[in-house]
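Team,

Forwarding the record for the chain on the shared tracking sheet. I've put the sequence and predicted structure together so nobody has to dig through attachments.
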Amino acid sequence: MTRAFEAGTLLFTDESGNDGEALQVLAGIAGTPADLAALEERLRASLKRHGVRELKWAGVRSRKERHRAAREFLALASEEAAAGRIWIDVIVLEPGAARRAHAHLSGRERWLLLYQGLLRRSKRRGPRRSRWALMPDQRTGMPWKRLGRLAGLEAVVELSSSETALIQLADLLAGLVRFSRERREGAAERARFKRQELLDEFTAMRMEYRLWPIKNLNGVRRAKKTQARD
């Protein structure tokens, strides 16, 4: 896709939760260029099979074809993670003390620290001395060059979610984790019910991933080597 695919390890990321919302979640999918390119092709085939142009968590409400595609996305990711070809990390900044303690930071600075935290923890699980490239969803105003310097990255390449199925998978995972941890009063009943169905299926898949709940932006509780759960 880009020159950054020459790097030893790639990390595809997307976010869930705006600056003013109670929960902010960042999901990352890491692996070698070859393994991720293969998964990208399988995800694209799934989109085509279900007649879905772009799969985003915000659009996973009641349309059956989107739910079918979402289930297949999760099944494919679970299969690849179980085979050790990819690894998934999800970092969560929860409401309460963490947000109060860092209320002086702009939304951009909070996200910057979350990206640094995700990269640091994902790198611990990757091959030693590998060169890394970050492949985030496009986000206006993020200091990507600064992040690249701080994290020692070979490259940071913003990608369009509409053109990158792995970004759509990261968005889906971030949205699911956020949905599982937030209060859901006030949501449209049908949309909430269908999303809960998808979460229940995600839980039943027992996908292996690591969940990093943030206590503050400089540290986290010990990660759970976990599987999908509510």
